Structures are given as C-alpha cells and as structure tokens.
Amino acid sequence: MNDINFLKKIALQVRKDIVEMTYHAGSGHPGGSLSAVEIMVSLYFSVMKVDPKNPDWEDRDRFVLSKGHACPVLYSVLARKGFFSPEDLKTLRKFGSHLQGHPSRLKTPGVEVSAGSLGQGLSVANGIAIGAKMLNKDIRVYCLMGDGEIQEGSVWEAAMTAGHRKLDNLVAIVDYNNLQIDGWVEDVKGLAPLADKWRSFRWHVIGIDGHDFDQILSAFNEAEQTKGCPTVILAETVKGKGISFMENKAEWHGKAPNRQEYIEALEELGFLKGGESID
Amino acid sequence: MIKEISEWSMKPGRDGFGEGLLELGEVQPKVVVMDADLSKSTRTNWFAAKYPERFIDMGIAEQDMLATAGGLSMMGLIPYTATYGTFVTGRAWDQIRTTICYGELNVKIAGAHGGISVGADGATHQALEDVALMRAIPNMTVVVPCDAEECKKATIAASEMYGPFYFRFGREATPVITHENTPFKIGRAETFHDGEDITVIANGPMVAEALKAAYILEPQGISVRVVNMHTVKPLDISVIIKAARETKAIITMEEHSIIGGLGGAVAEFVSQNCPVKMKIIGTKDTFGESGQPDELLEAFGLTSEHLIEEIKNILKK
C-alpha cells in the first residue's frame, strides 16, 4: 500500500511537470502524456531494472516509446528518476535543449529510441527482444503505443513477428484513450474488437484500467509469468487524465495550456493552494 | 591496380555480397543477417545455410525488418538486411530515416537488383532512385561497388565502421575488373585509368563501361581518366577537384536515374567549388521496362558506345 502511495505521489508530480513543460514550451502533447502517467510511473519506479547513474548499463530493461509525441511524460519520469535534472524540463522544445519535441536517443539520457513517426517502435522492441535472446541476456522489453497509432500497418507486421517468434521477454502496452487528433478512434477508424486482434496474432492479452496502479502492477507481473508468447496490455485510459478541462477532448492532443489554463490545471492538481505564484 | 581487360571474368554483384557474408560469418560473431523472403535471390541463403542461428527471415515485411534491425543493433549486434533496392529504400524509407539514421544505429542495408539490368521483371523491380533516396538522409553512407569482388569487400568493410550503411549491387553477371589486392576503402575513390583530356567518374558496372571507352579512345588520341567513385556519400572530393583542374570536363555514369545519384552528388560539388563542363549519364526521368539486360542497357544509353559519343560531344563544345 505504501508502495502505491509512493507511486501516486510521483504520478501527481509528473502530471504537474507535463502541464508545466507544455505551458513553457507553448506547444506539445499533454493529452496523450497525461493518459500514460500511471503506466510510465509504474514502469520506471517499480517494474523495470534501470540505473539512472548508468543509463547505458548493459543489463537494463529497455523501454521504447513508440508514440513519440508523448515524450513529456517520458522526460518527466526520467528526470524524476534521476537521469537528468528536473530543471531541464522547462527547456522542452526550445532551441539547444536536449529535450526535443519528439524523442532523440542521441540527445537525452535514458531515451532508448528516436521516435516520432508512428508505428515503428514495436519492431524496434522486437529487435531488442530477439537480440537479448540471441545473446542469452535476461532483460525485458517494454513498448508503449497509442491506440490511434496502431492504425499504422507496420504495427501489425511487428505484431506478427513477435507472435511468430514467441517473444515472451516483450510487453506491449496500448494506451487505449479512445481519441486521436481527428476525433474518436472508433469514428476515424475503429479498432474493436482489439483484444481479439492481438489474440489472433498469437499474443497474450490483458485488459486493465490504465490509471489503477494495482491493476497495472499485477498486469506487468502476469506478463512476466507468461511464457511462450508476447503479452500486450490494453490499458483503458482517459486522454488528458487529471485535468478536467482536458479530459476526453481530442483538441488537447497537441495543444499547450495558456497562462489561465495552466493556473487552473495546477490548482486542480492541488498545487498553488497556498496562493504561490507560478512565475 | 586492376585486371587487364583480357582477364575480366563475369560474375553477379550479389554473389560477392553472399561471399562477403560467409566470410563475416566466420570472423564476426556479432553479424546477424535478415531477409524479407528473397534470400535465394539476394544470396543470403548461403549465410543462412551455414549460420542458421544468426539468420532471420522476416517474411514479406520490409518496414518491420528495418526497424527490427535497429533494435538488434541496439543490443550491440551488427544486422545486415537484404531485399531488393526498390523495396527497401522505398517502402522502409521512413524506418531508415527516423529509427536508423536519426537514431544513428549500426544497420547495414543491402539493396539487391540495382539498376535497369534487372531485366525482364521490369520497372517495379529495377532500382533507379535508391541512391538518391538514401543519399538525402543525414548520417547515411552510400556505396555502389563496381563488381562482385568489390561488393564482397564492401560487405566486409561495412562491418568495420559504425553507422547506417546502404550498398547496392546488380542481379546479372557483370565484368569483374578488380582483383583481391585492388585497394578498397569506404570514402576513397580510385583512379583506375589515368588520362588528361576528360574524366569519367562512374560506379557500379558502369566503371567497366568507362574503362572500355577509355581503351577504345586511347589509340584515337583521346585520353580518358576513369575514376571508380564507389562511395557516393561521403564523396571523395579531392579526386573531383583534381579532375576539374587537370582535365577539360567531367562525365558521370551510373546505372541509376540522372536525378539525385552519383551525377547529382558530383554536380552539387563541382558547381559550387570547381565549375567545369559536366555531363550526367544515367537513366532519364523515366521508369525502366522489361527486356533483356543487354538490350535495356543499350536502350537506356548505359554502354561504352554511348559514353564514347558523349565524350566526343563534350570535347567538341
């Protein structure tokens, strides 16, 4: 229980970071970052073996952010874990910053894969997982995708490869927040029945509430126990989660809060209660 | 440096690739070979037969193959992907750009069936834009070996440098003009025949055509320098500057479109640094078509005869 309280505390800080980063940047992707907060905090603060002091540690678990636009949540989690100073977060998207608008593995400590053009991360994760098996390395690979993203055909090429090769050291997570830039995923190009799709590609499927730490942690545990096939976690989430005026609104996919919205968001998260200034 | 023309033998570039991989299999345990259901045609089946645990057939999924190769390289392995040049540089261009080149990953990309000489399969399978597509991406090295022997050397040399690497070779048997001891270094052009009137900068099987032209023109009093510019990126600019200074014109020749390939690369440099008369020989802004390799090469102007005409034309001007 203490563990979960600890994770919740970090999640709150990460939500604040996401709002703050995109406010200072004047652009960016808060919606799909906020929906993935609990998943990302679970991975970096409970599930994965990583060492912020040694980001290139050979035996670390690997995380691939395939939905690269959600990098604010990745940057915040990496900073809070100690990969770099949280002070850097305010430089997101600014000229000369190591925090690019979409992730660059050469610039940011802890970022494994450069991504931004969708639908490539699962193949990269497969490659890491296949390589780990070839080299007899006991590491696990995690790949986070968006639900809109899996409209990309290359995702299903990768899904077929992982199923065919029985990559049980691999876990894919779909941030199933039901929204993409142009609107509801079901209206643009529906995914249902999504669990059946993955099952038919020879994957073990776990459906969870993607904001519930108990369910998230138990899903990752179940994935680790599952042998002979890869696991996908379909995480039902809310786009913009935690900031009520952003929740379930496609327009918050790629828009930064203005000053007033920023203040409102911080107040809702429970910051600024003592009347402190944002500047 | 190279063989006498009487000693030229015939061999497909792809056989050199297959042999290079076999040699690497023995000396470099990190090499992993991947194919997209064309292993017999690309000759990766030779490696697969000997090193099955280091061969991955990805099925007909080029985009998946390239990004997966990226992941393998992140584990310290050296993946070689093989399929036809048209398919890999077209279909998987985004994976090559974003995952591999922007991420600076150590992936070696072999483009088989380069050029018009693919023959009967026709336009869909004849890679004529691949060099342009690969050359435009930062961090990429692009090599077009002149024969099977050089293709073998390029295959091995690719494993000795870090970074994204594209090389392309043909389907048909073409003259083997180099021997084991002919120097080959990525990024360094070799002058295969010296001359004072004009320089032909060629790569791939067009180097042999250029040499033939030089040998034919010599007794006619026209002295042709022939440069094997196997590495299109990074270009060996010292050889170009020398050619511009010492000879009256530069002709480039490649089994590729005249847009964006070797000719484009040389022209970009020459026009800005050492302007001299230039002619770019390659396929025009058009697709290929079905036919016998020889008749296609002739129809598309990729022969020594056509080169001789162009040399005479440009020297007259």
Number of self-contained structural domains of chain B:
2
Euclidean distance between termini CA atoms of chain A? 35 Å
Give the second-level CATH assignment, the architecture of the largest domain in chain B: 3-Layer(aba) Sandwich
Main sheet of chain A, how many strands, which sense, barrel? 5 strands, parallel
Give the CATH H-level superfamily of the largest domain in chain B: Thiamin diphosphate (ThDP)-binding fold, Pyr/PP domains
Uncertain spans of chain B, ≥5 residues at pLDDT below 50?
none
- Can you name the CATH architecture of chain A? 3-Layer(aba) Sandwich
The helix/strand order of chain B is EHEHHEHEHHEHEHEEEEHEEHEHEHH
* Straight-line N-to-C gap of chain B: 33 Å
Structure commentary:
The complex is a heterodimer of chains A (279) and B (317). With 279 residues, chain A is α/β, with parallel strands linked by helices. Chain A has one domain: Thiamin diphosphate (ThDP)-binding fold, Pyr/PP domains (Rossmann fold, 3-Layer(aba) Sandwich), CATH 3.40.50. In chain A, 40% of the residues lie in helices and 12% in strands. In chain A, the strands form two sheets. In chain A, strands 1-2-3-7-6 form a five-stranded parallel β-sheet, sandwiched between helices. Chain A has a two-stranded antiparallel sheet with strand order 4-5. In chain A, a hairpin with a 2-residue loop joins strand 4 and strand 5 (183-184). Chain B has two domains: 5-176, Rossmann fold (3-Layer(aba) Sandwich); 190-316, Rossmann fold, CATH 3.40.50.920. Chain B has helices at residues 13-27, 39-42, 44-50, 62-74, 85-91, 93-101, 130-135, 148-160, 206-217, 237-246, 262-273, 293-299, 304-316, and strands at residues 9-12, 31-35, 55-57, 78-84, 108-112, 141-143, 165-168, 173-176, 190-193, 198-202, 224-228, 231-233, 249-257, 277-283. In chain B, strand 10 (198-202), helix 9 and strand 11 form a beta-alpha-beta unit. In chain B, helix 1 (13-27) packs parallel to helix 3, helix 1 runs parallel beside helix 8 and helix 10 crosses helix 11 (262-273). The mean pLDDT of chain B is 98. The interface between A and B is medium-sized, with 33 and 30 residues.
